[in-house]
Design a protein that fits this description.
Strand content: 5-15%
Shape: globular
Structural class: alpha/beta
Number of strands: 12
Largest sheet: 6 strands, parallel
Radius of gyration: 22 Å
Strand order of the largest sheet: 3-2-1-4-5-6
Distance between the termini: 53 Å
Number of helices: 13
Helix content: 25-40%
Order of helices and strands: HEHHEHEHHEEEHHEHEHEHEHEEH
């Protein structure tokens, strides 16, 4: 039997953190006079942030650069400089450790918040420690987060599925709805399509083939046996080209080592866990062709308007980008093969043919 969300230790911890943080902040609340700042919360993933880059520009244009701060995760600190928007960072410990949370929420509230905007696809308890007359954002559908919706002064019913990646509407359509909600005026989809090519100066760089070996969900990743076949195919077409493996974490390190073992190719360079995220983005930006899954690196590469192949188990998800420079290969539902690796067991993502991959790779080379 599935454990009720309110009986989970994490839920109890979060409720305690919210209560005591508000208890200490209430002594400070009266000191806030004439708040003028806008806080925009984006503490979700890399791909979500870069996909919103045009929307971010429009928010800055509306409220003024000096009046807006974007709240992002600590590991994305460098994005503020790269994308040219003012940020405040928050770490995992500052969210979940009570003392650090109190200090952080004091620092955030001290700037004087006139309006709080949540751009994430859901809502969480941070909104209950924000003092602002206006709170705008997308309503959560998750049971444990629904209570946070009551904190909004104005909310948007955007989602229809509890898991956002199961939504079938395209991400740019979602961004259009958010923009209309925020600005109360009509806006064209084309105005929200991200283009970060000039931000990362990639026009004259085409260095090797780069493979992002992971995603947030293992069901979005083909097994290393299948990936090694794709790599052998690319190596036979471009025998002199370097192939770089990038990613981070223990599972991706094991995955990359298995690929090295299966391929035995001296042109493969394993960079998994050997570079920080900023360096990984630079490597992905400079690549001649990027190979990836439904992940943050795939979305980042899309914003650069550069060539890539993305392996998807299904195209009925929000982050499908239909552009000539992006080849999205979808897993087939028929003639599913047996699982070769229990850790990467999704049958559809492992059922993209070598021939289809080779065809797309050659088309991109000739583009």
């Amino acid at each position: 039997m599935k454990k009720k969300f309110f009986l989970k230790k994490s839920y109890v911890r979060d409720e305690v953190n919210v209560f005591f943080t508000n208890f200490f902040l209430c002594f400070f609340k009266k000191k806030i006079k004439n708040p003028q700042r806008i806080i925009v919360k984006m503490t979700d993933g890399l791909g979500d942030i870069v996909i919103r880059s045009k929307l971010i520009e429009k928010i800055i244009e509306k409220y003024g650069y000096e009046n807006v701060f974007f709240l992002v995760r600590e590991e994305y600190n460098f994005l503020g400089k790269a994308l040219e928007f003012p940020i405040i960072t928050i770490s995992r410990k500052e969210r979940y450790n009570l003392i650090r949370r109190i200090k952080k929420m004091y620092q955030i509230n001290k700037i004087g918040i006139k309006k709080f905007i949540n751009l994430e696809w859901s809502n969480d308890d941070l909104i209950r420690n924000i003092y602002s007359k206006e709170k705008l954002g997308i309503e959560a559908l998750e049971e444990e987060d629904k209570k946070n919706n009551k904190c909004y002064t104005k909310s948007l019913k955007l989602r229809t599925k509890k898991i956002f990646n199961e939504e079938e509407k395209n991400i740019i359509d979602f961004l259009k709805e958010i923009a209309i909600f925020l600005f109360d005026k009509s806006i064209e989809k084309e105005e929200l399509i991200p283009n970060l090519k000039d931000k990362f100066y990639t026009s004259f760089c085409n260095e090797g083939i780069v493979i992002g070996v992971g995603a947030t969900d293992k069901n979005r990743v083909c097994n290393p046996y299948k990936m090694s076949e794709y790599i052998k195919t690319m190596a036979s077409i471009c025998p002199e080209e370097k192939i770089y493996l990038v990613g981070g974490g223990k599972s991706q390190e094991i995955y990359s080592k298995k690929i090295i073992e299966l391929c035995s190719n001296e042109n493969i360079v394993n960079l998994v866990n050997k570079t920080n995220l900023q360096s990984v983005l630079e490597i992905v930006a400079k690549a001649k062709i990027f190979i990836g899954f439904d992940s943050g690196l795939y979305n980042f590469r899309y914003t650069l308007r550069k060539k890539q192949i993305a392996l998807f188990r299904s195209k009925k998800v929000p982050y499908v980008h239909n552009e000539k420079f992006t080849k999205i290969l979808e897993g087939k539902k028929e003639n599913l093969n047996e699982v070769k690796d229990e850790k990467y067991s999704n049958l559809e993502i492992n059922n993209i043919s070598i021939d289809e991959f080779e065809k797309s790779f050659i088309e991109l080379l000739n583009l």
